[in-house]
Design a protein that fits this description.
The protein is of the alpha/beta class. Helices cover about 45% and strands about 15% of the residues. The chain is built from 25 helices and 18 strands. It has a 6-stranded mixed β-sheet, with helices on both faces. A 5-stranded mixed β-sheet has the order 3-2-1-4-7. Strands 11-12-13 form a 3-stranded antiparallel β-sheet. A hairpin with a 5-residue loop joins strand 1 and strand 2 (about 225-230).
């Protein structure tokens, strides 16, 4: 009964505005409710301004609350409000035919909120609080206190407020300006929050494009998850919003809880002699006609697309996406307007881990087997990097400990520009999700191929069955077989460097981290925040560039990939150029399985 519903919603909206105020989140919810009603009724023109006003209020409330909430609280809070964005994106996909410019608002909201928790939390706070600038720290704490008070006031009925929140907002804005002037970290966050699609468009070169992938649920029971691309070129009048596929369609190709071994990868990506075009046709083909004159593509994945190797998308026999485009994966397309410096210094410090001894003297059962290729890799990389008076430190065998890693970033630590870790990596899927789905025994590969990941063993409950995804993802260092064999006494370091532990470090002076291990790019996918795993952890710690893997990588070919990469890094002095050139060289010699796993993320 739409007519009766409309009457009640209008009364509710009026009451909320009068009693709670026009900046209260509940008023925003009442705006969204009636906008959703008009959307269902097909009255798009009336629904649009209501969505716009609701989004404005909600973005303002999120910004204020994020100033003082903890990481966990931010996650829970944003989860309660994410529905308004999904509803608006769903609406915009249908509305854009009559009003193409609505995609500008979609793009601006996606860029503002993609990875918002990551942008607003640990890295910025750590930088300010570790600055030893007492004036800056005092300003920051005062600003947080004000934002907290403002948020509380706006969440209180107008008649019960003891202060005027608008007056406090002016004080907070003045403090914010001081923080922007005095703190580079704070300034970068504020700039990223105010980036519109036009700034990104104007930052593109004539032959470049930027693509934000988004996903959103819709339907009465949110039972359909759509994936769209928001595409910009320098010629764009507004972003193009292209519907690509549903999550079920993608899962029908890549499956669920796959083993990420060679058989699986060769099946979904194909080989040079027998390329599989299914992923290309699903993900990329709908955008082909908009990219005819483009050579370089910046792209930011979302949802399950974080598991896809875009370089290895096959278009035809022995033809892949990386053959047609210069691909640049970024956490958000805001990086087009705020790029990190990809050049390395002439002289730098590098720390390299490899040839790790996973057993202690008393352990016989090797859950994590020794990787001979990693020792060769360490020695070759050391030789390459030791030129031009670079300082190169290696951690091999029993010296490649968890405590040595943490000491690198202690008060008197080395804080290297480049950190390379060649070892086993792991990511365990959500145990609750596994229980819900059909139970399958993990297939263990045997034979001559040795993998840099653990697809055997059980581990302790705090890794495999932990509810925190940052505890189910990590790197294996010296002596780690002790904890997997239940021999760890529970004091000191256990040899397992989890993603959670990485988040507690200040790695802002490290330009590049290379994780030469299995599945280090994987993790639990959480809405617009992307992948919760090692990828997120190193970004939270402040690292600029990451090279990570999407599947189980073979020891021998990985060693070849990494040695080639560092040779080219010394030649070109540029991280991205060296990575792309390495991938091209490996691509000429091997099937995608051997080179497509590695991704460079900015």
């Amino acid at each position: 009964d739409y007519s009766a519903a409309e009457t009640l919603f209008l009364i509710l909206m009026k009451n909320n505005k009068e009693i709670l105020g026009e900046k209260h989140p509940v008023y925003a919810n009442s705006l969204e409710n009636i906008a959703n009603l008009y959307y269902v009724m097909g009255n798009y023109a009336t629904a649009e301004p209501l969505y716009m006003e609701a989004l404005k209020i909600m973005n303002n409330a999120i910004a204020q609350n994020f100033a003082f909430l903890s990481e966990n609280e931010k996650e829970m809070y944003f989860k309660t409000e994410v529905g308004i964005f999904a509803n608006f994106y769903s609406f915009a996909l249908k509305r854009k035919t009559e009003n193409p410019e609505i995609t500008k608002t979609v793009f601006n909201n996606v860029v503002k909120n993609k990875g918002l928790l990551l942008k607003s939390s640990t890295a910025m706070r750590t930088t300010i609080l570790n600055s030893n600038d007492t004036v800056l720290i005092l300003q920051y704490e005062k600003w947080i206190s004000l934002e907290k008070e403002i948020s509380k006031l706006y969440s209180t009925e107008i008649s019960k407020r003891n202060k005027n929140p608008e007056e406090l907002e002016q004080l907070a804005n003045d403090l914010e300006k001081d923080l922007v002037r005095n703190s580079k970290a704070f300034s970068s966050f504020e700039k990223s929050q105010n980036l519109g699609w036009e700034i990104i468009k104007n930052s593109l070169k004539p032959d470049e494009a930027a693509i934000e992938f988004i996903r959103f649920a819709e339907g009465q029971k949110n039972d359909t998850t759509n994936y769209c691309a928001l595409l910009i070129t320098p010629q764009s009048r507004q972003p193009e919003m292209i519907h690509l596929f549903t999550e079920n369609e993608l899962e029908s190709i890549i499956g669920k809880n796959t083993h990420n071994n060679s058989e699986y990868i060769n099946d979904i990506y194909g080989t040079n002699d027998n390329t599989n075009e299914a992923l290309y046709n699903l993900i990329w083909k709908p955008m082909e006609n908009l990219l005819s004159n483009v050579k370089t593509v910046y792209y930011s994945p979302d949802g399950l697309l974080n598991k896809i190797s875009f370089s290895a998308l096959g278009k035809g026999k022995n033809l892949y996406l990386c053959d047609n485009f210069h691909l640049k994966q970024v956490s958000s397309t805001e990086k087009v307007a705020m790029p990190e410096n990809t050049s390395i210094d002439k002289n730098f410090t590098a720390c390299i881990y490899g040839g790790v001894e996973f057993n202690s003297d008393s352990i016989k059962n090797s859950i994590w087997n020794y990787l001979p290729g990693t020792l060769i890799e360490v020695n070759d990389i050391k030789t390459n990097l030791s030129e031009n008076n670079n300082i190169v430190k290696t951690y091999i065998g029993k010296e490649a400990t968890e405590i040595s890693f943490k000491n690198l970033y202690g008060n008197d630590g080395v804080r290297p520009s480049i950190l390379h870790i060649a070892t086993h990596g792991f990511f365990y899927p959500d145990p609750e999700q596994i229980e819900k789905e059909e139970k399958t025994k993990e297939k263990v590969e045997t034979g001559l191929v040795v993998f840099r990941g653990g697809n055997t063993g059980f581990g302790l409950w705090q890794f495999v069955k932990n509810k925190n995804p940052l505890m189910r993802s990590g790197l294996v260092l010296a002596g780690a077989n002790g904890v997997w064999n239940m021999r760890f006494a529970g004091e000191g370091e256990d040899g397992v460097l989890t993603a959670q532990e990485v988040t507690q470090l200040d790695m802002s002076k490290t330009q590049l981290v290379v994780l030469s291990a299995c599945e280090t790019g994987l993790g639990e996918i959480k809405g617009s925040e992307g992948v919760y795993g090692l990828q997120r952890a190193f970004k939270m710690a402040g690292v600029k560039f990451l090279i990570m893997s999407l599947w189980q990588v073979p020891d021998k070919e990985t060693s070849e990939f990494m040695t080639t990469f560092y040779t080219k890094l010394i030649e070109t002095k540029n991280i991205r150029t060296a990575f792309n050139n390495t991938q091209k060289e490996m691509r000429q010699k091997y099937d995608p399985y051997y080179w497509g796993a590695f991704v460079l993320i900015e």
